[in-house]
Amino acid sequence: MTAMRKITPSEDATGTTPVLRVSVWRGTAEGGAYEEFEVPQQDNQTILDVVSWIQQYADPTLTYRFACRVGMCGSCAMMVNGKPRWTCRTHVKKVTEGGALTIAPLRNLPVIKDLAADMDPFFDKWVKAGGHHHPSASRHDPMPVITSETPGRVEANAGIECINCSVCYASCDTVAGNPDYLGPAALQRAWTLYNDAKEADREAVLDRVSGAGGCHNCHSQGSCTLYCPNELDPLSAIAGLKRASAKRFFKGGR
Amino acid sequence: MLDMRLYMAQRLSAMAMGPFVLVHIAVMIYAIQGGLSASEILSRTQGSVFWFLFYGLFVVAAGLHGAIGLRVIAHEMLGLKGWSLGAITWGFGIGVIYMGARAVMAVTGL
Amino acid sequence: MKGMKTHRDHPLWLAYALHRFSGLALAIFLPAHLYVLSLALTDPARLDGFLHWADLPLVKLAEFGLVFLLAAHMLGGLRLLALEFLPWSGPQKSLAASVLAGAFLISGLFFLRAI
């Protein structure tokens, strides 16, 4: 990779180096505004590369969050041209509009500073939906054999590759309108637990997602499934929870 | 703002209204042939137990369904909660069922 | 940020928006509709007067809009019920959607011939 340097406006005018016009949201929870940057365009360049270039060559005070750079950790999601994206694996060429980019912190979450959103509400709801395994056996019991073809395991497997990037949460207008709504990621996690034969109390999973902020608030807008960078399907997982709880309602009346 | 019970009430009233809406639209298309008049409507509906039950149940389902729908919209788009949210839900539901009962009695004469 | 695309630019979100708008419009219209019908009991002459007023082209257009919203809300609701309660696979959903679209095309043609 060749060394990059800051491009001055006079160089842009000659047209020798293609330049991206990038609006970056700057500010804190108290307020802020978009700031314009000009960033040299590369053949191969991700949104995270653009943000890093600004921080390294234009303004070292720019705050953002990333860790792995390869789509594993779920740290770097931001709003790019109005849509939530994992920035480390989103190529500029795929999302740029006439050489322009607008980059903002994730929607539906409080801003810490600049592009770093406070993920606490997202993870709090994950916990509220009971998003951890409740063991049904101890290490002294024999290991139950569950093949990957078991129907429940197939359902669970479809949702377990979530990296907690909060892209679905940011894309969901039901979250935007209803602050108590648990959101697609936490509910999809609950659906994988409900389908896990080793989960101790699967009825309790349905109880946790049937309250005032539960799965029944979902309006099936489908943005979660559309934007999930790992191509998971929270929309169908939430529909599964609705179906399971409705079945239980008819059987047991709760 | 939708818990299990409200959700089931919303979906069950929706399922009940499916056939009602289809028949209602069909009757509407039939009735507007050659213009509408009060006497024409009343001649069809006066004394009919069938239309009394049909529109009676339709009104109850619509009141329930509309009340829960408005409740969701009021919470998500206007940020209402607590007392005012309950007032919208119950006010619309009871209001529609009351006005609907009057209208059904008026057109069937029962 | 004029003309900027948003996370809402996709068919399922538009289906949601149509369902919400049609539902809200119907909820607002319903009390007025029931009030006019109850005039048959209290004041038949005013009901007839209202029905004549309903012959005006603009009112006719509004009525057509309401019937459209009712149909749209019902079809959107059927879509939601199928999505939530029928665990269909992708191809099954596409097949169901195309059968439904075909049925509406045919019934629409007959309807247009009838009026």
Automatic annotation (TrEMBL), chain B:
Pfam families: Sdh_cyt
Organism for this UniProt entry: Roseovarius nubinhibens (strain ATCC BAA-591 / DSM 15170 / ISM)
Keywords, comma-separated and alphabetical: Heme, Iron, Membrane, Metal-binding, Transmembrane, Transmembrane helix
InterPro entries: SQR/QFR_C/D, SuccDH_FuR_B_TM-su
Cellular component aspect of the GO annotation: membrane
Required co-factors: heme
Subcellular location: Membrane
UniProt entry tagged with the keyword Iron: yes
GO molecular function, one term: metal ion binding
Transmembrane segments: 12-32, 52-73, 85-105
Biological role: Membrane-anchoring subunit of succinate dehydrogenase (SDH).
The protein's name: Putative succinate dehydrogenase membrane anchor
From TrEMBL, chain C:
Chain ranges passing through the membrane: 21-41, 61-82, 94-112
One family name in Pfam for this protein: Sdh_cyt
Protein location: Membrane
Entry keyword annotation includes Translocase: no
Cofactor(s) needed: heme
Predominant cellular place of this UniProt entry's protein: membrane
One Gene Ontology CC term in the entry: membrane
SUPFAM superfamilies in UniProt: Fumarate reductase respiratory complex transmembrane subunits
Binding site for heme: H73
Cofactor binding, note field: The heme is bound between the two transmembrane subunits.
Annotated keywords: Heme, Iron, Membrane, Metal-binding, Transmembrane, Transmembrane helix
One of the GO BP terms on file: tricarboxylic acid cycle
Keyword Heme included in the entry's annotation: yes
InterPro entries named among the record's database cross-references: SdhC_prok, SQR/QFR_C/D, Succ_DH_cytb556, SuccDH_FuR_B_TM-su
GO MF, one example: electron transfer activity
Complexes and interactors: Part of an enzyme complex containing four subunits: a flavoprotein, an iron-sulfur protein, plus two membrane-anchoring proteins, SdhC and SdhD. The complex can form homotrimers.
Protein function: Membrane-anchoring subunit of succinate dehydrogenase (SDH).
Family designation: Belongs to the cytochrome b560 family.
Name of the protein in its database record: Succinate dehydrogenase cytochrome b556 subunit
Organism the protein comes from: Roseovarius nubinhibens (strain ATCC BAA-591 / DSM 15170 / ISM)
